[in-house]
């Protein structure tokens, strides 16, 4: 029925000549009638038109030099602006139909309530500061800010380290904690094995079974790391389990070490020793930054936030602020500040362009790929700060300009203007992306140190042993026959010609062959020893038999014997006979 009633009401309204009041009283407090809505819309448009008319035909603009974001140059006696901020302001000036004149402060710095850009706004010497000024709470007492246009990122610029922060090739597979645990276990296992085996032997009636010397236990623990065998063969089950547990532990550790070392040499990423401001301060790194700029301003605030450690480092004289004027070449200045131990902290876009320009210059010089990327930046920014335009506290044009700035920011035009001159690719990343990994001296540096240290300790030990032997022989007066020191001292030196020689064999006995008689079978012919003719070179010849040299000795009986030439067995054979 309700639908039919609505149809009838509509037919009556169309055919009736009576006027109908289309405004209905608000059923709720928040409802408004159509006339009021139209009236408010009209008044708003009129108010906007009045605000547009309130903007003077020419306004005073101040700014400061901030590389790509805002720059001032003098042309024919007039200041001309450039950079992202002035491009954005040119769009607003063209839309609102006004002109602007650039006035500069006495000192081209951000300043305070008296000096710099903030001082000019506070003293109403300028209508607006066209620059990306950090929105700092301390400045709200003197000026007012526009909506947030972008945020400032602070990065760290440094020379590329020679090696990764992971460490050298030998120490890289394990962390410092793991290495400490391994060396502690290596130092403890030897004494523990000695104590356990000695105590067990004591409990079993002081038997010598499975009782080893302390040095043998220590060398067993050390030799297991080198995968060497051991002369220790325990018979007790408890000792066997203890020895086997250490072998299993060492096998697992060495397997993980080998696998991680292979992965490090082929797939490892280049990392820095510091990733935040706290790391920079804790490692006692020296740093530098531009004077009267964002880093200098922030650490002098009441609350530096993330840059609080830099304030502490600056008070410890590890931080330096350099003055860079408009006439100076900032790139050349920064290049002279950077060293292997000093960092430079600045806005991220300047850092990226600095690395890009240096890379291109080195490429034009036909340098090898590894030497082109001489500078790098820390991967993550160390500080972020919102930025925008600034006005005097009693500004009458801030609302209309802020409205236009908000439109440009929400539509992405400001972000597009900032991204035009930024590098499209990342120049000189941490990982250079080389497809081949070769070992160099940096990877083997610890190996050289280990072998040099080992030989040094060996030399020291040799000197100590010689010194002990020398001084012990100097003071020994026992004069015993068994004392090597006294025996050597008591002997007179013998010339080489008088040195005792090995006794020569007796001269050969000349015999005659007896005449065979009927009684000759009862008497044996004299036996001539074969060593009698060893030195008789005329009757003997040297033959090479089975890898050794032998004298072929002809006996008087006609037989031939083989005697080794100048070997211990030949001498023993001579003495035994």
Automatic annotation (TrEMBL):
GO biological process: detection of stimulus involved in sensory perception
GO CC entries: plasma membrane
Its membrane topology: Multi-pass membrane protein
Superkingdom of the source species: Eukaryota
A GO molecular-function annotation: ligand-gated monoatomic ion channel activity
Gene3D superfamilies: 1.10.287.70, Periplasmic binding protein-like II
Localization: Cell membrane
Main location, first listed in the record: membrane
Domain Ionotropic glutamate receptor L-glutamate and glycine-binding: 59-161
Keyword line: Cell membrane, Glycoprotein, Ion channel, Ion transport, Ligand-gated ion channel, Membrane, Receptor, Transmembrane, Transmembrane helix, Transport
Transmembrane segments: 177-202, 244-267
Stretches assigned to the Ionotropic glutamate receptor C-terminal domain: 176-341
Signal peptide: none
Protein family (similarity comment): Belongs to the glutamate-gated ion channel (TC 1.A.10.1) family.
Protein name: Ionotropic receptor 76b
């Amino acid at each position: 029925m309700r639908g039919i009633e609505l149809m009838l009401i509509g037919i009556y309204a169309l055919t009736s000549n009576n006027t109908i009041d289309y405004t209905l009283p608000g059923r709720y407090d928040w409802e408004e009638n159509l006339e009021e809505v139209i009236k408010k819309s009209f008044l708003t448009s009129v108010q906007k038109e009045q605000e547009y008319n309130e903007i003077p035909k020419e306004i005073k603009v101040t700014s400061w030099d901030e590389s790509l974001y805002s720059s001032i140059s003098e042309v024919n006696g007039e200041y001309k602006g450039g950079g992202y901020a002035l491009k954005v302001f040119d769009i607003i000036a063209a839309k609102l139909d006004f002109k602007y004149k650039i006035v500069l402060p006495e000192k081209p710095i951000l300043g305070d309530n008296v000096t710099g850009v903030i001082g000019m706004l506070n003293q109403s010497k300028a209508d607006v500061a066209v620059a990306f000024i950090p929105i700092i709470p301390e400045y709200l007492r003197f000026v007012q800010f526009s909506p947030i246009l972008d945020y400032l990122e602070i990065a760290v610029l440094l020379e590329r380290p020679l090696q990764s922060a992971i460490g050298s090739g030998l120490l890289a597979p394990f962390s410092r904690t793991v290495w400490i645990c391994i060396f502690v276990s290596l130092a403890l296992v030897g004494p523990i094995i000695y104590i356990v085996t000695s105590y067990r032997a004591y409990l079993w009636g002081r038997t010598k079974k499975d009782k080893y010397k302390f040095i043998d236990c220590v060398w067993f623990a050390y030799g297991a790391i080198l995968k060497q065998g051991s002369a220790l063969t325990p018979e007790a089950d408890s000792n066997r389990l203890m020895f086997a547990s250490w072998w299993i532990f060492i096998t697992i550790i060495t397997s993980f070490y080998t696998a991680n070392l292979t992965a490090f040499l082929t797939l490892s990423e280049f990392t820095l020793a510091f990733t935040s401001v706290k790391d920079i301060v804790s490692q006692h790194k020296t740093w530098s930054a531009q004077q009267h700029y964002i880093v200098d301003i922030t650490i002098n605030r009441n609350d530096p936030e993330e840059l609080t450690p830099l304030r502490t480092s600056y008070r410890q004289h590890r931080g330096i602020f350099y003055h860079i004027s408009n006439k100076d070449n900032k790139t050349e200045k920064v290049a002279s500040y950077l060293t292997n131990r000093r960092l430079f902290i600045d806005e991220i876009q300047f850092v990226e362009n600095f690395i890009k320009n240096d890379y291109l210059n080195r490429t034009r010089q036909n340098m090898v790929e590894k030497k082109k990327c001489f500078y790098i930046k820390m991967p993550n920014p160390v500080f972020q700060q919102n930025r925008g335009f600034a006005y005097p506290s009693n500004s009458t044009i801030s609302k209309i300009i802020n409205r236009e700035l908000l439109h440009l920011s929400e539509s992405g035009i400001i972000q597009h203007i900032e991204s035009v001159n930024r590098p499209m690719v990342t120049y000189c990343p941490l990982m250079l992306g080389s497809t081949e990994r070769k070992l160099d001296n940096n990877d083997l540096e610890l190996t050289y140190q280990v072998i040099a240290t080992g030989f040094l300790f060996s030399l020291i030990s040799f000197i100590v042993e010689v010194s002990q032997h020398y001084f012990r022989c100097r003071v020994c007066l026992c004069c015993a026959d068994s004392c090597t020191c006294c025996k050597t001292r008591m002997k007179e030196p013998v010339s080489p010609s008088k040195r005792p020689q090995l006794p020569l064999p007796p001269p050969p006995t000349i015999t005659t062959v007896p005449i065979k008689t009927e009684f000759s079978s009862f008497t044996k012919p004299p036996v001539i020893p074969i060593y009698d003719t060893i030195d008789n070179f005329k009757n003997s010849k040297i033959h090479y038999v089975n890898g050794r040299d032998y004298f072929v000795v002809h006996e008087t009986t006609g037989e031939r014997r083989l005697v080794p030439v100048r070997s211990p067995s030949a001498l023993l054979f001579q003495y035994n006979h």
